[in-house]
């Protein structure tokens, strides 16, 4: 066909495994695409596409793809750009110039919305284009996929960290800090905080309290529970979402900064909570804001998540080459235990539906603990280890040297 | 001899490998001590000793010792207690009652000072006691040992995290956050921040700026360097010590809380720095305070550190049984590359010398980077991996069920 080439780009906040999706997608393209069909990469998402900063992904070979799959962050760079009317013609011109018939955009809710915009722009221009949203986000808030690639690894990292920090807290609670608060990302959904609940094997183990945006924060009730927990177990470990809100839906804490798409930058709820606990209950507190660490910790990923990330990239190519249009490769759960899943194509429009939040029945009635249903959903997503190679004591991450596409004038 | 029993206790902030020291010490005692000589453990350090909350460590068998060595935090609990005059008689009475002739106290500077106190108290009472300070601290500030067990693992964790977060930052710096700041522990010494410098393999890689307490913080100079780094590389990753001080030696940030020994609780310098960068340079910033995570991350330890922690515990017993008195088993470096070391006895008094800080020549002249000398010292300490067993996707940490000593009335 005329536009036999494809383009792959990455969007939004990174994950520890988005490059596994890239590696799977590139490998599948190399194996399955018609002879002569090229796969381009855009640097920095659609921003690089508009600026025609393209690289040749078809040129990557197996050792480089292996290396790519072991490196966290987004190898091509990302953006949170919203396409502006004055950019529409430029977008179509670049696609046309490189004979791009398929765009694979790998990201979360922002990328899904961008996919809708790209499709509408191409259709308005009469340019034939297949738009594929390849899901990725540690927030796990994309509907219609059992889990979002990236989430399982961040969840494993946070639950592990919470278990470790809880043991730390317990060791000195008798004469020192009695409360530890771990802040998680996840924006307006509490999936990552819920996943921290997996660290508790029995009632006395941390986390003792989960604070999700899905449940409005009630300071009196929270402080009462902290005191009860300290009285009972000697200490209290808390996991709290950055997007925690009050009774009227207002954010309890935000930095005041906004990102390129206008969304508020969150972060800082843990020190805020710690200050409340110390002021009201007199307990010495420790707190941690993991921030980027939780979404780039390739040294501690879920092998299940890695497999799903890679399979999502592979499936995107195979489903597109089979003729499906305007879709998203999503994970479908076939069984909980042992966990079985496959990948199917969901229509693009559905994936741009409102963000998915933690269902009420995944938490206990008081909202402070994971329920059996929540545990059943989350448990398989963090299973398995997949360590990167180390060199001189540190993970030997290497981003391949991509070959820039030279532009003929 | 009359007082053939020994006591082991843990003090201060935990590390990821202090329980390896415990496991090594217990195993050596079981193998080497005279028949009938018992090894007790005190819960919560010398607080538990005073309260006669003792357990029987001689009863632990190999599988439990293996498990112990894989678990972070301090299995027996710790404290930061300073012995008070009214407690002296009680201390001697408890030692006498259990025929304890040797005390192994496993901790940092506070434990070293406590060892001095315990020895003085015993000598004043005419009670024959051998006092052994077994070193441990992530701060690496104990003189006379090449490295402090616990430091290498925290260093590896932080350098890994910094490398991962720097890749994250680089991926979106074009259109979003340009600066990331990772706060490290270490109190008034900058060893952990210096170790973050190991993450940079070439000038463009993070961390671009190290901020240690050993160099007074100069805001103008720092901001200038941040801007230069962003201009040059597009982003800037910073590692900053919690104990950062200004030109007059004042702490830039402290929580206002104090621990049981009266020391100030630190933490919060990263958000403070981030606010300065945003206010003065206009860059969007991200920051992380790892806090407990860095000292309890048994999932990512240095195999070198684990070996040294275990060997330190074993040597404490073997040297004591050989007749040495009032000492500390310290690590002696024999060669840098390949790293070779052994353990020797240092006199107790020397170990209670002032804390060891990062030498000037371990940093570049501007103080912002690791020098070749600094790299030579630090590099071997983080080498090697030693993963704990996982179960259901999480590290399967298990603290042995210690047998309490029943007290005959």
Please tell me about this protein's structure.
Two copies of one chain form a homodimer. With 409 residues, the first copy, chain A, is an alpha/beta fold. The first copy, chain A, is 35% helix and 17% strand. Chain A folds into two domains: 5-150 and 299-354 and 385-395, Rossmann fold (3-Layer(aba) Sandwich); 151-294, Phosphofructokinase domain (Rossmann fold, 3-Layer(aba) Sandwich). The first copy, chain A, contains 13 helices and 13 strands. A five-stranded mixed β-sheet of chain A has the order 3-2-1-4-5, with helices on both faces. In chain A, strands 7-8-6-9 form a four-stranded parallel β-sheet, with helices on both faces. In chain A, strands 10-11 form a two-stranded antiparallel sheet. In chain A, helix 1 (18-32) runs antiparallel to helix 3 (62-69) and helix 1 (18-32) packs parallel to helix 11 (303-321). The longest helix of chain A is centred in the middle third of the chain and has 22 residues, at 151-172. Chains A and B meet through helix 6, strand 9, helix 10 and strand 13 of A and helix 6, strand 9, helix 10 and strand 13 of B.
